[in-house]
Amino acid sequence: GDMEEIINKQSVGVVLKDFSEASMKKAIIELIKLAQGSEIKNRCRTTAIEYFSLEDGVNSYSRVYKEAIK
Questions:
Q1: pTM of the entire structure?
Q2: How many Å apart are CA 9 and CA 30, to the nearest integer?
Q3: Three-class secondary structure of residue 50 per DSSP
Q4: How far is CA 28 from CA 14, 25, 39, 40, 41, in A?
Q5: Is the separation of the CB atoms in 4 and 15 below 8 Å?
Q6: ∠ at Cα 3 (43, 26), nearest 5°?
C-alpha cells in the first residue's frame, strides 16, 4: 500500500511481507543496517514532515471539502 511505498522509497523503515521467522529475521537485519546509517534521523524527520504534516493534511481536506460543496 501507500505506507509500504513511502517507507521503502524513503528508506525509513521495514515492512514485513508476512510474520514468518525468515521475514522477521530479514527485517531485523535491514533495520539494524538502517539504524547504523548517519542520516536515518534526518530521513525520518523529513519524511514525516513531507507525508504526515498535520497542517498539510488539514489544508488537503479543506480543499476537498471546498470542491465538494461547489
A1: 0.70
A2: 14
A3: helix
A4: 8, 5, 18, 16, 18
A5: yes
A6: 75
